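FAQ: What does the model actually see?

It sees only this:
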Amino acid sequence: MKTLCALALTCLVAAPAFGQAPAAPAANPITSSVGGQLAMVKGYLTKSAQQVPEELYGFKATPDVRSFGQLFGHVADANYAICAAAAGEKNPGLNIEKTKTAKADLIAGLTESFVYCEKALAATTDANGGEVRELFGMKMARLAWLSFAVSHDFEHYGNIVTYLRLNKMVPPSSQGRGM
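And it is asked to produce this:
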């Protein structure tokens, strides 16, 4: 009986999919994949920045590391530098980490840095993503630079997760999952 019920449930769930054409692949599947990762980390970081109370923006896990606010500013600065390289543009050099301390200013800087990266990504295709760009004395394909921006953002999201947990807060990536 259990097997029959499980089979019936499977058929009910799967039935709408039968007879439908599969979704068309994205025109630029590699670039679109990087874009999906960028959107994910953007959500995690901006939600974290909004979640942290302003009075904790100066919190440091130890005296020798960046504070919450400095981490958000550092991510924004790095987004500008790395995504400018991908776009073949000059880094705007906003120095957000060193010049902004208020929560609203850091959230704005972080948000605008992601808009800048999204613009660089929008101008990138699988075809032109192999164009070589230089930053930090390294030469890589523009799509590799955008992927590096995502990796860098996730690296610092990991720092922020630790800070959130130390302050009894649930990180955005764990919210809604009963953790």
